[in-house]
Structure formats: C-alpha cells, structure tokens
Amino acid sequence: MAGQKTSNIALAIVLLSMAIPGHMAAAIHHHVVGDDKGWDISSDLATWASGRVFKVGDNIWFDKTASQESLVELESVNEFSSCDLTNPIKMYTEGINKVSLDGEGSRYFISGDSGSCKKGLKLHINVHPNKEEENNEEDGISTEYKDATNPHGSNEDEDIPDVPEPTPSPKPKPKPPHKAPPPEEFEPDVAPDSPPEPIFPPPEFSPPTPSSSTLVYGHFFAMVVAGCWIVI
C-alpha cells in the first residue's frame, strides 16, 4: 500500500513538472510528507521536517488515502501547540493534497482529529526565500532581453575585430585678415609753369574789306597825284 501511495504521488509530480518551464522546474522541490508512510500517526513528522529545507516555490504533498486522517491548516503557533481546531484557515479534503509554498514564513498543519493531533499528527515548517528561483528569473529576463536586442541570435562570445577609431583631422589654421594695399598718391601730369590751354580757341581776326566808296576816293586821289607829277 505504501508503494502504491508513493507511485501515485510520483506520477502527479511528474505530470506537474511537465507543465512548468524548465528553468522554473529546476528551482522547485517537491516534498512528500512522511515519505512512504504519508500523513499518518506512525510518521515522525518532526524528525522528517528537521532534515529538509523548504523554500518559496516548493510544493509539499500530503497523502491521506491510507490513514483516512483529515488535514487542517492553522494560522498561529498557539493554535498549533494546543491542537485548536476552532478557527482553521483551510481544510484539505482530498486523498492527496498538494500545498504550494508561495511565501516566506511559518506554516502549521494538523490533523482534523484533535486526538490524532495530540498524538503527534501535525507538521510545522519554515519557508525560506528561494535565491535559486530568483536567479533563474533574472537569467530568464536577461535571456529574453538579449533575444529582443539580438534577434538574429549572434554569439556574443565571437571575436569581434577591433575597428580603429578614426584619427581626427587637424584643424585648419585661420588665415590672416586680408589687408588692402594703401592708396597710391595721384600726381597729375602737368608741366610746370605752363599756362593752361584755353578751352575754346580765340576767334580769328580778319581786316575789314574796303568799301566801294573808299576805292573810288583812292582811285581819284591816285589820278590827282599822277597829274601833279606830269605838270612838274
């Protein structure tokens, strides 16, 4: 009967693991309470729990199919110590129950029968943070980020040739400011002591032409003079 119980739980664990991504399944541990004896008074659950480390994300399995003992979860250590069943936070009724350890802290489980609880059928565990799962989640995020930034899947470890940095070209020297040559002194080509040439030439003077009356008197005077010479 014990072997049958173990095989049933093992099958359930295998099926559950197949539905979990590989990097998460590696960080999850499955704990079968009481091992082959299961959830039973004959199981030394205090000793069984002391040799195990329970972490966030792990699962614990309760097999009650043989003992028919009920299972109750309590909130406080006082209720656990006194087997107080008046205010349970959860009751598990199936023959095989999986309980997920989804947070840090203490968990308290006892039998639903106060008599069995007082005989030792109860379990107290401390759940620790799962550093391995956190690292796997970070690796998963890092891998997804790398895949997103490197869609072609190139290997980062490949040797990448060193590309020399371009040498900056020297800055051109500033040209000196352009200076205009000094203006040359203009010296007019004028001969010294030479009178300036007139702008307009002087009008030509022509003697007056003698009138016809003057010519008559002159001719008459010439005849008189000639006559005198003849008389003499």
Automatic annotation (TrEMBL):
Any Pfam family: Cu_bind_like
Region of interest (Disordered), residue spans: 128-212
Domain Phytocyanin, residue spans: 29-129
Single GO MF descriptor: electron transfer activity
Keyword Membrane belongs to the record: no
Domain of life where this protein originates: Eukaryota
Keyword terms of this UniProt record: Disulfide bond, Glycoprotein, Signal
InterPro entries according to UniProt: Cupredoxin, Phytocyanin-like, Phytocyanin_dom
Pro residues: compositionally biased ranges: 193-210
A GO cellular component annotation in the UniProt record: plasma membrane
Residues annotated as signal peptide: 1-25
The protein, known as: Phytocyanin domain-containing protein
